[in-house]
Amino acid sequence: MTIHRAAVAGVLGLAILVGCGSSATDISERAQRQLQTRLDEVTAAVGLADSVSARSALADLERSVTQLVDAGQLSADRAAEILAAAQDVADRLSLLPAPAPSLTPSPTPTETPTSLAPEKPDKPEKDKGKGKGHH
Length: 135
Hints:
The chain is mainly alpha-helical. Helix content is 55%, strand content 0%. It has helices at 3-19, 29-47, 51-70, 76-93. Helix 1 (3-19) runs antiparallel to helix 2, helix 2 (29-47) runs antiparallel to helix 3 (51-70) and helix 3 (51-70) packs antiparallel against helix 4.
């Protein structure tokens, strides 16, 4: 099994915990909808083998789990199962290769004028009596 497939398998396990087998005391409908949205974000990122986005989506999922437990929308036991499955996905993501560096060039810095006033041309110096002229 490739590393990418292993990560996808982990997401599937997480999906089962979020969506299936819930009782009214285990997870509220609101919590289930919210967690499903977060899971969809994780699934999309893992499907693209985008480990950076997947980790960010997992962090969002973990924050949602904590908030839902605090709000009484998710049981502590169910939260522990979801968080353990999320950690399993994170562990599998760490096995994916690092993302390739961006090929987008950095913008070239431009010079900024130090003054907005137009430059005045130098005035020629007046003859101060040196050289030819009146004595």
